[in-house]
Amino acid sequence: MLFSKAFGRLGSIVGSSPLKYFVASVVIFVLSVLLLVILPPEVRLSFSHGYTTPDAPSIRELETHVDFFGNRGKPWYMALFAEPRDQDKGSMIESNEFEEFKKFYRNIKKDIIIRAERDRNFTYMDYCGNTCDINEQVFKTVALSWFGLQWPETSIFMFKSNIGKFFFLRDMKGRNIIRSRLAALYFMAFVNGTQAANDLRDYEAKVANWVAEHNANATNLLTITQHSVRGMEMEVARGMKFVLAKLLAGTILTVFVTLLSLVLLNKNYGRSCSRVAFLALAANILPLMALVSAMALCSVSGLHPNTVTIVAPALAYAIG
């Protein structure tokens, strides 16, 4: 009831001087368009901010990593996931599958040249620092586990190794892993400058090419999937293009059906079709004008549109 009365008063105010408020809306819209031309919004499709709360478990884990390694810069992550192509019999704890995964991992760590400068070739090993060996634990554990692997901790004599984050989709017998249909290996570095950030993005792209080449080889035992910021951004962009095309087609179809329905109804009841068509067109344009003005306000205030911001206008337009 509170909002009903408030919007009722607002409607009365606008209705008392419709021309004045219409002109004001057009002026604001034109200014918004000019602002967007002068200060185009910077679209950010990253996943660093705006998707989780500051106290989320993933954020706390990230802060723990940063503190543990001495706060050396902004953390960068990438992961490889491998699954056996033979889903019925293959297993990531078998020697052939695991060795193929380990060999691929070590090759892309040392053999991919990210950048060449004078007589020096830069590889991932030049950026990972203290994190270069974060997967060596699982390699040693698998090599020494003659009596099988336990999950989440495998005991080898007096040594306990936590392998919980390396093997997934497990078939278990008690604490013993009988079979695993998915394994992961991780990459981590700390970015201290623009050059390092650009180099690691290039590294992600080159790893993607190696992954595609590996998966195209039918003789390999594994299918490898890369998980990285760049890969996610590319997938988000591809998905947005697909979704926005569908939404645009749906919006055009909705407007057409609405106008056609109004014309047929008003012809049937003898009303002025041109006036109703104009009002219907205005009802569809006004939400669009409001969205453009809101985008201009965000651009001026320094807010950066993300994936949700870009998709949301279609929903807002439909509601409006």
Automatic annotation (TrEMBL):
InterPro entries according to UniProt: Patched_domain-protein
Superkingdom of the organism of origin: Eukaryota
GO biological process: endocytosis; molting cycle, collagen and cuticulin-based cuticle
GO cellular component labels: cytoplasmic vesicle membrane; plasma membrane
Keyword Glycosyltransferase: no
Keywords: Membrane, Transmembrane, Transmembrane helix
Keyword check for Transmembrane helix: yes
Segments passing through the bilayer: 20-39, 242-265, 277-297
Protein name: SSD domain-containing protein
Native organism: Trichostrongylus colubriformis
